[in-house]
Amino acid sequence: MKILVINAGSSSLKYQLYDMTDESVLAAGRVERIGMDSSILVHEPHHTEEITEVSEILDHTTAIRKVLDKLTDAEVGVLKSTGEIDAVGHRVVHGGESFKNSVLVDSEVKSEIRRLFDLAPLHNPAHMMGIKAVEANMPNVPQSVVFDTAFHQTMPEKAYMYAIPKVLYKKHKIRRYGFHGTSHDYVSKRAAELMDRPIEELKIITCHIGNGASLTAVDGGISVDTSMGMTPLEGLMMGTRSGDLDPAVVPFTMMKEDLTVNEVNSMLNKHSGLLAISGVSSDMREITDGMEAGEPNSTLAFEMYTYRMRKYIGSYAAAMDGVDAIVFTAGVGENSVVIRQHVCEKLTFLGVEIDRELNKVRSKEPRRISTPNSKVDVFVIPTNEELMIARDTYRLVQQSKQS
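Now predict its structure.
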C-alpha cells in the first residue's frame, strides 16, 4: 500500500509518499508561497537529487495537482499513475475533545473540523484546504486525519482543567489540549524500544524542542500532562512565543499600550520568546553564537530558555513520581549540543548524568547520551510524525476494508 502524507499550511504544503510494505519514503517535498505567481515546488525523489520549480500556484488544489504531476513524472516521478496512491493522511493540529483518535474523513468529520476553527484559526482552516484539494484531484481515494491533540486526550481532569469558572469549560471547552502529540507518541515508543522495556512500565519525559516547543509527561505509554495548553502559546519559552506568563499582563499591556486583542495576540505569538529577549533572532543557532560571543541579551535568552525547560522536567518528574528516561527531539532538541548539555547537567538531583562526548556526536540515528551510571536514560531521537500519520492511515484503511 502506498500512502501520501500531507501537512498543509495557509501558504505552504509538505508531503511524503510512503510504501508501507517496508515503510520506505519514495519521495518527499514541499510547496511554498502558495497564492503567488512565484510559488516554489521542491520535489525529492528517493532515487535522484531534488528538483526545484518556480511557477504560479494560486491555491492548494493546484499545489496538489503539481505534486501529483511530479510523483508521476516520467523522469523524476516514482509512480506510474496516481492510481497507485491507496490513501492520503493529513496532519490536523486541533481535534478538540471531539477526536481522541485518528479517523477516516467523511462529511461529519469535515463538519467537526470546521466547528473547531475557533480553537486553531491559523491551522485548521489550512488543513481543511488540504483535504478539499485532495478531494478535487483524487475524489475516490480515502483520506485520514491525524490530530496533534489526540495523544493528550488521556490527560486526567486535574491536569487539563483550568482554575477558572467551570461554565467556560462547559460552554466553550476552554481547557488544556496540548500539541505535538504525534511526535511525543512516536519518540516515547521509540525510547521504550531502545531501552528494551515495555512502555507500560516506563515514565518518560519527552522534549519536542523546535521553534515551537513542548514537554510531555508520558506515564505507561499515555500522556498525563503536557506544557502547551488550549493553544500552542502556553508552556515553554519558544522562538517567537512567550510561553507562560501572568494572565494580568494581557489586559495591563492592552491598556498601557492601547493595543487591540489581535495586536496583543500577535505580540505574544509572533514577537515574543527568544526573538524578544535576544533582540536578534528566534533561531537558537544565532542565540547560541551570540551567547558564546558574550552578547548579554543572547545569554539571557538562552538562560531563560534552558531554565524553563529544567523547571518543567522537574515538575513532570514530580507529577509522575519519578522518571526513567528523558528524550530530546525536533529541530533544536536533535541538533543543539549546548541546549542538551545545559539542561541535563543541572538535573543531577534526578540522577541524570550526561556523557559529554556522546552528546557531541551528530547523527540522524536515535542514540543514548547518558552515562552507564546515570539513573535516568537520556536519548536524542529524531521525530517522525509523517511515519506515524502513514501508519495510522494504513491501519484505518485496513480496518475499513475488513468491516
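Residues 2-147 form a domain with the Nucleotidyltransferase; domain 5 fold (CATH 3.30.420.40).
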